[in-house]
Q: What sequence folds into this?
């Protein structure tokens, strides 16, 4: 009986937390279907009196939204693929190779996680400009091709694989590329998928860096578009901003729903939670 | 041909020498057991053969070729690990055939070898299971099957049976010998179980603290151990090896005098400090004493019942020994006559601990 009371308490608490976290999403979703007038008068109404698609229509006429969504998706996809590959390669080397100074190199690499973005911003900007990638979505993607977080997460999960698996393969004259493709990646597939999703969503949400690189509206990403509708110049019509928000979060939400199983598993296993 | 030669091979991790000047020649097609206590360097030696550890100094030859710098995959070895190292995401069949596929063997050859191994190791019906759906014994057999489809010249096994229970182990031992007799690879088998060593091995290499202590057939190692370590390590229960002094045809065990037959005196010669060894089953403890000169008085301490036999712990002054007896057992506190079977005793040098040899006619 006691335990049940305790469990019930925990569930009520979790329910409240979920509500708090879900509230902004619900708020944006509901208000994106209201007229500006209705929204100002009945901001808390859950079901709009006269649902309307006007906000969405306006958004799509004001900016090339299909193109912008596509840009954002392409950047995120390229970043995810490249960062996954570089992270797998690096993590494999850190786990299964022995070389002088391995620990030192690893800790140096991990410490880059703690360098603020503002420190690398200017050098990266100059590099990208020199490469002629200003106002180009590749210029947004390129600096994100590798980072320490992915290496860290994948190294953690590769470390759970017994070394003897790789040694058997070595004795059988199976090259490292095959070992990674056929043995390591399939075994840690849930981690690879969930780190991939983290990469994707991080890139999707990126704001400051695209602002620096992208100039023309045709090259915009969703977070830049969203900013336009929130800022003073873009308009004070917040129902429109809500519509843009809903568009922006559609893809990450969908990904989360599809890959939910992997994400929960990985975080539960690695103890990061 | 497919012989293996260790020539002054050393292995160190940083300052720590774990294999010291190993010299050893393993004949082609031989079954060699690497035996020794935990941490003595058995796995390290095996891994040097497999090419998984660098050789710090010395030369290693396989099939007449110096392999110090030859990649693992080019040595034509196969290996079975203690934890089996099966690929967890692949079926039994894929585990067995994967390496052949990667190495581009013809499809019919792969199918043939795989099904032969599956039949031979009694895995029929389990082909599509994943390793986690198998019992320990089945996993072990998959690991063996995977190692034999390669038809390698050298077959390396690191404690392949240590995760099995006693019954399965006895069965698996026979299986291993059967496999070896079919394919005749040069086989190196690491274990710290001496029953396994005696039954599987054609030769035994006994190591201690990185040093090769003995290298011979199981029979020779048991009957004529090369030194005190070997004498104490091989045999269960272990041989009694005690310090003793020798003088004029007599030995003194903790001060107590016992005559030694003439044939032995010629072997021991003028040694003063020696080690005297006798296996528990070669001791007779009699109440009367058959020949008072060639025996010595001892006091029984306690008796263990092994079911078919008794273990009798006794002392000659302060020196404790164990005897095995099946009949008339003395009781604790009783004084008896310790009568060694002098055809089965061993003497070792007091300094080097090496075997002093045996009388001519033996
Ligand atoms: N990678 C390593 N780095 C440092 N020392 C090591 C390493 N591998 C093994 N050693 C040391 O080398 C010695 C021999 O190890 P090894 O694994 O060969 O022993 P073993 O005879 O196989 O023992 P066991 O029967 O317990 O398996 C041990 O003292 C061990 O601590
Ligand atoms: Mg070992």
A:
């Amino acid at each position: 009986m006691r335990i049940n009371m305790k469990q019930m308490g925990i569930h009520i608490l979790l329910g409240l937390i979920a509500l708090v976290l879900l509230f902004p999403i619900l708020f944006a979703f509901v208000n994106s279907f209201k007229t500006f007038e209705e929204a100002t008068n009945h901001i808390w109404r859950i079901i709009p009196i006269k649902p309307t698609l006007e906000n969405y229509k306006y958004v799509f006429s004001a900016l090339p939204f299909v193109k912008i969504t596509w840009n954002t998706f392409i950047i995120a996809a390229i970043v995810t693929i490249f960062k996954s590959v570089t992270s797998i390669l690096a993590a494999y080397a850190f786990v299964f190779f022995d070389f002088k100074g391995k620990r030192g190199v690893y800790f140096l690499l991990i410490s880059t996680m703690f360098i603020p973005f503002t420190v690398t911003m200017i050098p990266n900007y100059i590099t990208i400009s020199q490469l002629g990638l200003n106002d180009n979505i590749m210029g947004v993607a390129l600096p994100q091709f590798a980072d320490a977080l992915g290496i860290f997460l994948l190294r953690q999960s590769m470390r759970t694989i017994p070394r003897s698996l790789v040694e058997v393969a070595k004795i059988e004259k199976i090259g490292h590329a095959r070992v990674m493709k056929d043995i390591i990646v399939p075994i840690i597939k849930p981690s690879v998928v969930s780190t991939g999703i983290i990469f994707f969503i991080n890139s999707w949400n990126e704001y400051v860096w695209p602002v620096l690189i992208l100039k023309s509206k045709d090259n915009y990403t969703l977070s830049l578009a969203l900013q336009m509708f929130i800022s003073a110049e873009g308009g004070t019509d917040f129902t429109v901003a809500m519509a843009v928000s809903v568009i922006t979060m559609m893809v990450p939400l969908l990904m989360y729903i599809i890959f939910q199983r992997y994400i929960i598993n990985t975080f539960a296993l690695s103890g990061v939670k | 041909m497919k012989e293996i030669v260790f020539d002054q091979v050393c292995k160190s991790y940083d300052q720590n020498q774990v294999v010291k000047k190993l010299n050893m020649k393993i004949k082609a097609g031989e079954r060699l057991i690497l035996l020794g206590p935990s941490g003595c360097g058995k796995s390290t030696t095996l891994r040097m053969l497999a090419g998984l550890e660098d050789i710090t100094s010395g030369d290693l030859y396989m099939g007449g070729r110096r392999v110090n710098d030859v990649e693992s995959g080019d040595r034509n070895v196969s290996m079975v690990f203690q934890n089996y190292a099966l690929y967890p995401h692949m079926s039994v069949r894929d585990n067995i055939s994967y390496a052949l596929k990667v190495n581009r063997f013809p499809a019919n050859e792969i199918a043939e070898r795989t099904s032969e191994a599956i039949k031979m190791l009694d895995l029929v019906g389990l082909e599509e299971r994943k390793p986690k759906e198998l019992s320990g014994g089945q996993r072990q057999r998959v690991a063996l099957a995977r190692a034999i489809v390669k038809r390698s010249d050298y077959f390396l096994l690191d404690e392949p049976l240590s995760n099995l229970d006693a019954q399965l182990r006895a069965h698996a031992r026979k299986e291993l010998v059967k496999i070896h007799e079919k394919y005749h690879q040069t086989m190196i088998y690491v274990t710290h179980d001496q029953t396994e060593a005696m039954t599987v091995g054609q030769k035994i290499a006994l190591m201690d603290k990185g040093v090769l202590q003995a290298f011979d057939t199981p029979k020779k190692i048991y009957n004529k151990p090369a030194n005190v370590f070997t004498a104490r390590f091989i045999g269960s229960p272990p041989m009694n090896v005690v310090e003793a002094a020798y003088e004029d045809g007599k030995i003194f065990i903790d001060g107590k005098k016992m005559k030694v037959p003439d044939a032995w005196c010629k072997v021991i010669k003028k040694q003063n400090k020696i080690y005297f060894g006798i296996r528990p089953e070669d001791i007779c403890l009699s109440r009367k004493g058959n020949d008072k000169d060639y025996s010595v008085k001892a006091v029984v301490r306690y008796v263990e019942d092994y079911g078919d036999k008794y273990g009798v712990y006794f002392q000659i002054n302060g020196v404790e020994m164990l005897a095995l007896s099946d009949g008339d057992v003395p009781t604790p506190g009783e004084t008896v006559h310790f009568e060694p079977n002098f055809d089965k005793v061993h003497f070792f040098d007091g300094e080097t601990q090496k075997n002093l040899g045996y009388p001519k006619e033996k």
Observations:
- The radius of gyration of chain A is 23 Å.
